[in-house]
């Protein structure tokens, strides 16, 4: 299958456009085109979302519901958000659009000897912009098997464009609803042995002569959501020498359960907890990848990475996402200065995670199994990161 208006493969040879692929999708296509080690996949473009919304006839209703909405009136925001999402989840997807997605999924699966699990990730047109930070506001689902689960969770991602948290953020930042759209990334799931994040600066003071890396065992969602305290290592960006490091507790990891076909939480034994999750060579490789992303995008980057247990050493480091750093990048370059170890202890994401609030509830550790990391369980399969979407009945795609 070739890329088209409604489906764009990462390696399809079409120039990435934010308005078609959303921030995450455009980044993945760009990184693939640049020769970076990105797991294969495709993007269900904004054109498919827009066609669905037009066919369903609910775009005008959404504009009317959001007009004049007070972001401080949480009860009304929750009511409006729930109504919009229920509308999206209850309408049928045009058959021609559904068939395109099914064919794209089958084409992706044909690249492997046997079907592999995938991640389904939201990619809104307003996310990952240099002057905005939408991380975690829309849905991500991990370790999905089969076309039914994939198509169902694509619709869930569409609906997550209208969570209370996302609506409030857009209202408070004067981001208009008109023209807002949602693409969805479908990507081969990585069997992560170790994963984490890296930022091409010191996030405590914006010092661009440093690289900061957080790493922990298993799938990286426990790092991003702050459920584990990862290892935190700071390196000199030029020499890649370790400037400081703090060993995190790393008490648990998310790993695939092949028999159950889902991710499960597993306790990390004392020996592994007591040592750094990355070897010296792996640490250097992650730092070099972060520098390469920064050089390509010409601005400080915040990347997600993983070491795939199914690939040989030297070929197992994969780039999952790269987005512009949004806190310090607009400020003058900081003068290098020492930072007390207590300032970085606990890791970059754990230190800068949003404080719990009505709009962004604190992440809770999921029970073993296929449960979302948000406070409200999601019916259906898949591990859901960062969603505050209420549990709703989800029809087939």
From TrEMBL:
Source organism of this protein record: Arthrobacter oryzae
Record's protein name: Phosphoenolpyruvate synthase
GO biological process: gluconeogenesis
Family per record: Belongs to the PEP-utilizing enzyme family.
Function as written in the Swiss-Prot or TrEMBL entry: Catalyzes the phosphorylation of pyruvate to phosphoenolpyruvate.
Record EC number: 2.7.9.2
Keywords, alphabetical: ATP-binding, Kinase, Magnesium, Metal-binding, Nucleotide-binding, Pyruvate, Transferase
Cofactor needs: Mg(2+)
